[in-house]
């Protein structure tokens, strides 16, 4: 009844016929009867008394011991139902349930849209840390149970904490997570690109995900929200196509697990030149009109052409600059690292680009590598970020160098010396012909000379 009492102005009687019909069919005439009916439906048995029945319903949704929406659940409910419930309320409230029923009624009356399941606002990334945290919770719960059991057995005995606590239960859960989890894989180390790509992999398979057999065409397909978040090119050919993808070059994952991508702001038809880029999730990006990264503008941010190619959700209009909200950061924003290494990618057929980006990862490291004649400028970045190289920790001078080691004397002030336990000079051992997981080899050669000055971060 509270739904009918709190129905919006302008909602006609007809909109709520479904509620009236339900109330007419409903046999219960009081709150007590309703509670007992719900108990019967849940437990398939008669309720012993009203209090027990209420307790069951309460524990199901409204008890923070038994029920937890989590940060993401609360955030999504607030956004979807336009609620202002505080973020620390992790259980369902009565207001939530009323809002949900209202939304469902609007859905039946075609006043609201059904969610698109492939929209990236309805899919989130479960990072390794989050999954490990969940496993750790399972391990701690098991350990707590064994401790309780041991305390019950030894009632009046004197015992030390070491008699009660056995860490093996915890370590076995963690070991099985890293050892037997479907997503725990042997790192692909054929070359530095293969390594960094493997670390940026996103999979829709595994526990809590899909299976290859059940995944249909829609799940594997490219969605407009993938732009700048998941690479539309790099994915395996074969049964896993579209289920395993790569993170785009500029994308990052926010603390709720949604993928964000950066944009420049456009105000009154001008690009805001001096401000920082803003990162938006797929949900925040909906309803915004976004210009291409290669749209030309002058130093003051004015667009040179009277009309600009843009995209609005799934469409690609050509519009006046005044109607723009945002602008892409870079032309390679749409691709992953491997696809960004292909020169003139825009002139390639998508299928060949897919094969090319997958095959670069299979290249064997050579004894005498040569720089490509035509590149995209990202090659050095990939090598640096794959962490196979040695970077200088600060500014300094090379004191000694040979094929096996490099010694650098760092310039440090008194404060740095005080907190550091090492001298000013540091020796780095170079990796020589180290065998990788794929039986290729990592071999580093020094590129600095004795007496050369180095800056922080230099290779």
What topology emerges from the helices and strands here?
Elements: H1 2-5, H2 17-25, H3 31-43, H4 50-61, H5 70-81, H6 94-108, H7 128-153, H8 161-164, H9 168-180, H10 192-199, E1 201-203, H11 217-220, E2 244-246, E3 252-253, E4 259-267, E5 270-271, E6 278-281, H12 282-285, E7 289-291, E8 308-312, E9 318-319, E10 326-328, H13 337-340, H14 350-359, H15 379-385, E11 396-401, E12 405-410, H16 414-419, E13 425-429, E14 434-435, E15 441-442, E16 453-454
Parallel strand pairs: 7-10
Antiparallel strand pairs: 1-2, 3-4, 4-5, 4-6, 4-10, 7-8, 8-9, 11-12, 11-16, 12-13, 14-15
Explain what the structure shows.
- With 459 residues, the protein is of the alpha+beta class.
- Among the domains are: 2-108, Dna-directed Rna Polymerase Ii 140kd Polypeptide, Chain: B, domain 3; 117-184, no CATH class; 251-329, Roll (Rna Polymerase Beta Subunit, Chain: C, domain 4), CATH 2.30.150; 389-454, OB fold (Dihydrolipoamide Acetyltransferase, E2P) (Beta Barrel), CATH 2.40.50.100.
- 33% of the residues lie in helices and 13% in strands.
- It has helices at 2-5, 17-25, 31-43, 50-61, 70-81, 94-108, 128-153, 161-164, 168-180, 192-199, 217-220, 282-285, 337-340, 350-359, 379-385, 414-419; strands at residues 201-203, 244-246, 252-253, 259-267, 270-271, 278-281, 289-291, 308-312, 318-319, 326-328, 396-401, 405-410, 425-429, 434-435, 441-442, 453-454.
- The strands form 4 sheets. Strands 3, 4, 5, 6, 7, 8, 9 and 10 form an 8-stranded mixed beta sheet that branches. Strands 13-12-11-16 form a 4-stranded antiparallel beta sheet, with no helix packed on it. The protein has a two-stranded antiparallel ribbon with strand order 1-2.
- A hairpin with a 5-residue loop joins strand 14 and strand 15 (441-442).
- The longest helix is centred in the N-terminal third of the chain and has 26 residues, at 128-153.
- The N and C termini lie far apart (70 Å).
- The model has no long low-confidence stretch (mean pLDDT 88).
